[in-house]
């Protein structure tokens, strides 16, 4: 899967000041809503929060992949960010998270959602990739590393 078709440079941020899981999910909501006409930041936040209630999307090794489906979305949107300081995300390894990749997809695209999550998880499971993401000096470099 070509991850550059999913993630855009304007949805990539490095060294974000996110003091808690809730704050990070709210920020993702604000960023994603600008890319999804007819969707509010609260819609995005609520979708991500509802998914987190089912179980944390912190997959370990400092990485979380919050995701959700939206009835109002007409296309998938992704947000990639690194955090200034790691935060508690209730990850499966109980380690704090500093790399966040959020994915929002239209409600009727269940199969694409699963395939995309698998591709993103595979990319973020690569220790060389996560090391490079953590060392990125700009939003553009963060984008280039992830999509490269």
TrEMBL record:
GO biological process, one term: phosphoenolpyruvate-dependent sugar phosphotransferase system
One example GO MF annotation: protein kinase activator activity
Segment forming the signal sequence: none
Cross-referenced SUPFAM superfamilies: Phoshotransferase/anion transport protein
Domain PTS EIIA type-2: 5-148
Taxonomic placement: Bacteria, Pseudomonadati, Pseudomonadota, Gammaproteobacteria, Alteromonadales
Name of this chain's protein: PTS IIA-like nitrogen-regulatory protein PtsN
InterPro entries per UniProt: PTrfase/Anion_transptr, PTS_EIIA_type-2_dom, PTS_Nitro_regul, PTS_SugarTrans_NitroReg
